TrEMBL record, chain A:
InterPro entries cross-referenced by the UniProt entry: NqrB/RnfD (IPR004338), RnfD_bac (IPR011303)
Family per similarity comment: Belongs to the NqrB/RnfD family.
Naturally occurring in which organism (per UniProt): Alishewanella aestuarii B11
Entry-linked NCBIfam families: PRK00816.1, rnfD
Name this polypeptide is given: Ion-translocating oxidoreductase complex subunit D
Subcellular location: Cell inner membrane
UniProtKB/TrEMBL annotation, chain B:
Protein source organism: Alishewanella aestuarii B11
Gene: rnfC
Single GO BP term: electron transport chain
Name listed for the protein in its UniProt record: Ion-translocating oxidoreductase complex subunit C
Annotated Basic and acidic residues bias: 777-787
Xref: PROSITE patterns: 4FE4S_FER_1, 4FE4S_FER_2
Binding residue positions for [4Fe-4S] cluster 1: C376, C379, C382, C425
Length: 355, 787
């Protein structure tokens, strides 16, 4: 009889790319749930649209590239890209926004670079930046948290908003954005920026209704939920602790210094950590294995770079939140970081990193 | 701050980078006693079971060998012998599937056990009185090579001259499933410690560190008990992690030292031996039992009784599996070694060798096949798992790109192929396989480069040598020239002599050319002279015949005996020629000759006969060159029937050739001779000539009988005359035609020589063919003889 020939090792831990991606998607669920509660069901509609678009685009382009479609669809990498982008954009953004964004992420950023594993940039973030630059109005129409919304929106309203840009009762997005006092409510990060730029003190600005305690209303909880999911990923060894820790440190340390140095003029580190997309980006976006650094030391540098860039852009840049830009800039630095942070091989002296 | 040695003494353990925790699955075999395998029908003993070179075979097929008898001899330090695991007969020495991932056939000794298990004489050593050299020799002669997997000859490691700080006994056995060392430690801890004692005597280390993975409590307790009397033997429990049993990793675990890349542990004062090797050393030295068996873990869920067995080296894997109740499934994998570093076997006839520690026959659910290989997502889990702190995903990238420079920059050759990276890879990329291929390619390139370099060096050395020789020659010539310059007058003389030599040569050449041009003319003259001479001869014959007819053979005729003899000689020659022509009658060409003959005038007959005789002699001489038995021309004529078929064939060929020649000769004579005859007739009296011809005819008829008698005596004389004439050849006759004319026999000889010369010219083409024919016939007959 003939026996099967295989090369060693003959053992595998049975953890595949597919299961890793599934873990990432699952770990994002608490954050998504909290987001839906605080900011409306629009995010669910966006998720649905994004996932369908991602699968469709992935299948189509794999077919065009004459690759086996099903195994690659089942690696769930497209799913994760779709989920991250859907979470990142405003929940009631028009449907075509997410469709264009997802298609761009899958087709242009991922597959045209050679598919999974070969893309230089994080697909979700590249798409986010593309949308932000191309459609700045739609990309910044964030509603305040549900408690501050003048009209309560039902799940059906979410569909209507996304597909028709009007709620079932006929409200437009800009109408819904207005506060009880009739002024347009910006996101907490935006409000603070504008207030500080206008010469208000931190304490004064935090009196605004968009804030709750030290952070934005609703945003605190969303960030906490993503933190929880992220910790789960670390516990499951899906991601390494290094990148999230470095991102948070890279953001917290400068903000702490500036906060201490100019009390009242700079937001606290906690505000930074629990506002905007901080936790989502630190645990789910920056840790995208393909576009991140792969060495242990490199991951620390990479994370710290993202954190620092986020702080700088938030404080001095033209955009309220900065993770997409920070991540893309760090992605570009990855080959350099990897090259200079090669670990010392067993039995070799620590040298020849510079060569 | 405590010193390293103090830390080690205090039991400090360090850690190495990476590592994985696969399920160990050892309990199914580690708790059972070691079973004794029944004697198999045949043992297949590969000549080489270690790293190094095979020993020299010292047994022959059919020879009976005793248990423990060496089958090969170690004649250099990189060799250890193999021994007969039991008594029996050497059945054959043949090629057999090797216990190697390649499964390439290798030479094995096939031993058929006789069931008596009869030992050779054993001479245990007393280690207290034995010298270091004796012990090392015993270790080598007992065929001991590292039993942990690499199979490095143990005597080399144990005979290390460098000072040794730590002797590390590797009893970690980190690979899943395997429990052979565990079983050995449970069953024979004291023997192991005795083996360690011997190693200590050889190496004299500061401390002995015995590393055992923490999941072997019984073995740990047994060894601790066995070591309790030894002062600096430390049994160390190392945490369960793969691959802590790797040499470099265990050194790091126990001493926090790293073996520098490209160096050996001995360079940092460490020697590591496997626990099984220590056991084998004790057996070899104290019991004089060479390495002829080992414990093998036979495990996997396809076996009814997975267990450790004591197997004789050379036992086929199938015997072990059958003993343990093997039930194979479709697409069965049988792995020699563990699941991480073992290799699959193509068939079960592969023998157990010195480094075989496990036979694993898992079900498909137990160790599932790898899924399809997906793209690397650069997750870096491989780098986290790598015990050598490499960057496997970078190595994969460069392996795929076949970039040897980058691969070596990323230290590909520090990969120990433990398989940890492939174990954790979520994309199920067979990373180790990529590295093996890349390593092999780089090694091949390096070999090629080395070869090219050597060739270049050789070429340059050759050029240098040639240049040197050229210089030497130049120097020598210059020296000689200088010497000549000193002896100037002599040189002038030499030049004059050389010039004289050249002139002489030129003159000679000119003379030769002159004689060449004169030759044809001289030949004609000689022929003419010959004819004149012959005419005179006939006249003399006529007179003699007349005298004879008158005197009716009175003594008067004896007074003319000299003349008569000459005539008789000519007649004999004619007779010989005729006889030969008659001999050749069977050949069809002769008919042409005979048809042509009547047209030739009778007067030409004697001459023709002379020509024919000369031809025949020349022919015979040529034949004599190829066949010594043919040297005597008369033999051809006298005994053609008695000769063997070959000779007959040659004779026939000769006859054919001669017949052809005679045809051409006849044609020539018919054309040229009448003129010559006319010329002769014009000079002489025509009537005389007619009479002479008639007389000659009559004489020929008359002397037919006496001539035959004299023919036997005379040819010898005639032949001598001919040979001398042949030696002096044409120039002589050309220069001195008159003197030739004076002496009759000489003239005859000259004539014969001329005739032969002519005949040879005519022959040249046909003769060549004949000799070829002769040779081919000779070859044929020789071939038939050898058959």
């Amino acid at each position: 009889m003939s026996f099967k020939i295989a090369s060693s090792p003959h053992h595998h831990n049975q953890r595949t790319t597919s299961s890793l991606m599934q873990w990432v998607a699952l770990a994002a669920l608490p954050g998504i749930a909290v987001q839906a509660v605080f900011f409306g069901y629009g995010v669910l509609v966006q998720l649905l649209l994004a996932i369908c678009t991602a699968w469709l685009c992935e299948a189509l382009i794999l077919r065009l590239r004459q690759k086996a479609v099903l195994p690659r669809l089942l690696d769930h990498s497209a799913l994760v890209t779709a989920v991250l982008l859907a979470i990142a954009i405003p929940p009631y953004a028009p449907w075509w926004l997410i469709v264009i964004g997802t298609a761009f992420a899958i087709v242009m950023v991922k597959q045209l670079y050679g598919g999974l594993g070969n893309n230089l940039f994080n697909p979700a973030m590249a798409a986010y930046v593309m949308l932000l630059i191309s459609f700045p109005v739609q990309m910044t129409q964030w509603l305040p948290s549900v408690s501050l919304q003048p009209v309560a929106l039902s799940p059906l309203d979410a569909f209507c908003m996304v597909f028709t840009e009007y709620s079932c009762s006929g409200f437009s997005l800009s109408q819904l954005q207005q506060g009880v006092d009739g002024s347009t409510q910006a996101t907490p990060l935006d409000s603070l920026r504008q207030d500080l730029a206008a010469g208000m003190t931190l304490a004064e600005s935090l009196q605004r209704p968009v804030f709750y305690s030290f952070a934005g209303a609703g945003w605190l909880w969303v960030n906490l939920a993503y933190l929880l999911g992220g910790l789960l990923l670390i516990q499951q060894k899906v991601i390494s602790w290094r990148i999230p820790a470095a991102v948070l440190a890279g953001l917290a340390v400068p903000s702490l210094l500036f906060w201490l140095g100019s009390a009242g003029a700079s937001p606290s580190p906690l505000f930074h950590l629990f506002s905007g997309a901080t936790m989502l980006a630190a645990f789910f976006i920056a840790t995208d294995p393909v576009s991140a650094s792969t060495t242990d030391k490199g991951r620390l540098w990479y994370g710290a770079l993202i954190g620092l860039l986020v702080y700088l852009i938030r404080s001095y840049g033209g955009y309220p939140d900065a993770f997409a830009f920070a991540v893309l800039l760090a992605n570009m630095s990855v080959p350099l970081i990897d090259y200079y942070t090669r670990p010392r091989t067993y039995g070799h002296k620590a040298k020849r990193n510079l060569k | 701050m405590p010193t390293l040695f103090q830390q080690i003494q205090a039991g400090t353990l360090w850690d190495f980078h990476g590592g994985i925790h696969p399920p160990v699955r050892k309990s199914q075999t580690s708790s059972k006693p070691v079973a004794q395998l029944p004697l198999p029908d045949r043992l297949y003993l590969p000549l080489r079971q270690h790293i190094g070179v095979a020993g020299r075979l010292i047994v022959a097929v059919g020879q009976r060998v005793l248990k423990g008898e060496a089958l090969t001899s170690a004649d250099n330090s990189m060799t250890v012998p193999v021994h007969a695991p039991t008594s029996g007969v050497i059945h054959s020495i043949s090629q057999h599937t090797s216990a190697h991932p390649s499964a390439l056939p290798e030479p094995v000794i096939v031993l058929v056990p006789d069931g008596k298990d009869e030992w050779r004489e054993r001479r245990p050593l007393n280690i207290a009185t034995s010298s270091r050299h004796q012990i090392l020799e015993r270790i080598q002669d007992s065929g001991i090579a590292g039993m942990g997997g690499a199979g490095f000859p143990t005597h080399l490691k144990a005979g290390m001259q460098q000072p040794v700080d730590y002797l590390i006994i590797n009893a970690v056995e980190c690979e899943p499933y395997i429990s052979a060392d565990d079983a050995l430690m449970q069953e024979a801890p004291t023997t192991i410690v005795k083996g360690i004692d011997i190693l200590c005597q050889l190496l004299n280390p500061k401390a002995v560190l015995i590393g055992i993975e923490a999941d072997k409590p019984i073995a740990i307790a047994a060894l601790k008990a066995a070591c309790s009397q030894r002062e600096h033997y430390y049994v160390r429990e190392v945490p369960v992690k793969y691959p802590s049993g790797g040499e470099k990793q265990l050194i790091q675990l126990l001493t926090n030292k790293e073996v520098p890349a490209g160096r050996r542990p001995a360079d940092i004062g460490i020697v590591m031996q496997n626990v099984g090797t220590a056991f084998a050393i004790a057996q070899a030295v104290l019991d004089d039992q060479p390495l002829i068996s080992r414990i093998v873990t036979v495990t996997g869920e396809t076996l009814r009784q997975p267990q450790n067995v004591l197997a004789l080296l050379g036992t086929p894997v199938s015997a072990l599996l059958d003993f343990c109740g093997f039930q194979s499934e479709a697409q069965q994998k049988v792995i020699m070694g563990g699941p991480m570093m073992g290799f699959t076997l193509p068939d079960l006839a592969v023998p157990i060798v010195k480094t075989t520690n496990c036979i694993l026959a898992p079900t498909r659910d137990e160790l599932p096949d790898n899924g399809p290989e997906l793209d690397c997502i650069r997750c870096g889990q491989c780098a986290d798992a790598c015990p050598a702190t490499l960057l496997p995903q970078q190595l994969l990238w460069y392996s795929k790109a076949r970039d040897p420079v980058k691969l070596q920059e990323y230290n590909l050759f520090d990969c120990i192929e433990c398989g940890a990276c492939a174990y954790v890879c979520p994309s199920e990329i067979p990373l180790v396989q990529y590295y093996r291929v890349a390593k092999a390619e780089i090694r091949e390139q390096q070999r090629e480069a080395l070869k090219a370099e050597q060739a270049k060096a050789r070429f340059e050395a050759r050029n240098a040598r040639l240049e040197q020789e050229k210089q030497q020659r130049l120097a020598r010539n210059q020296q000689l020239a200088a010497a000549r310059q000193q002896a100037q007058p002599n040189e002038n003389q030499a030049v004059a002599e050389a010039l004289a030599r050249v002139k002489a040569q030129q003159a000679e050449k000119a003379a030769l050319q002159a004689t060449d041009s004169a030759k044809d003319h001289q030949q004609i003259l000689a022929e003419r002279e010959l004819k004149k001479q012959q005419a005179r001869e006939y006249q003399a014959q006529k007179q003699a015949a007349a005298a004879a007819s008158v005197a009716d053979r009175t003594p008067a005729s004896t007074s003319d005996s000299s003349l008569d003899n000459k005539a008789a000689a000519v007649a004999a020659a004619i007779a010989r020629a005729k006889a030969r022509q008659a001999d050749a009658d069977s050949s069809p060409t002769v008919e042409q000759t005979s048809a042509a003959e009547p047209t030739t005038p009778e007067a030409a007959d004697p001459r023709q006969a002379a020509v024919a005789a000369a031809l025949a002699r020349a022919k015979a001489r040529q034949a004599g060159q190829t066949n010594s038995t043919m040297a005597e021309p008369s033999a051809i004529a006298a005994e053609p029937e008695q000769q063997d078929p070959r000779q007959a064939a040659i004779a026939a060929a000769l006859a054919r050739a001669k017949a052809k020649q005679s045809v051409t000769a006849t044609v020539e004579t018919t054309v040229t001779e009448p003129v010559a005859a006319d010329a002769v007739a014009m000079q002489e009296d025509p009537r005389k000539a007619a009479i002479a011809a008639a007389l000659a005819r009559a004489k020929a008829k008359q002397s037919a009988t006496p001539a035959q008698e004299t023919a036997i005596v005379k040819p010898a004389a005639a032949d001598i005359a001919v040979t001398t004439a042949q030696q002096s050849l044409a120039p002589d006759t050309g220069i001195q035609p008159d003197t030739a004319g004076n002496d009759d026999p000489r003239k005859a000889a000259v004539a014969a020589a001329l005739a032969r010369a002519k005949a040879r010219k005519a022959q040249q083409s046909t003769e060549h063919q004949t000799t070829e024919q002769q040779l081919s016939e000779q070859r044929d007959s020789e071939e038939s003889k050898t058959e």
